[in-house]
Amino acid sequence: MKIQLRYFAALREALGPGETLELAAPATVAQVRDLLIARGGAHASALARGRAVRAALDQAMVTEAVELSDGVELAFFPPVTGG
């Protein structure tokens, strides 16, 4: 299956705006994050398991246990604070 990845805020600065990723189904958000971490380099440091990273699937917040389907947009971004 093919999914569209998007990165926002500091992740966008480190990894760029996004990319298309082809992977075997079924796959979860956690599996995609681990796959990206396994690339090493900027992906490993920006998405490391010790870092707070949020995920949205087709613009709705999700947990990493959510299963993906073909054609979805998966976005990763740091937690947002405001005031």
Automatic annotation (TrEMBL):
Q: Supply the Pfam families for this chain.
A: ThiS (PF02597)
- Where would you find the membrane-spanning parts of this chain? none
Superkingdom of the organism of origin: Bacteria
Q: CDD domains under this entry?
A: Ubl_MoaD (cd00754)
The protein's name is MoaD/ThiS family protein
* The species this protein was found in: Leptothrix discophora
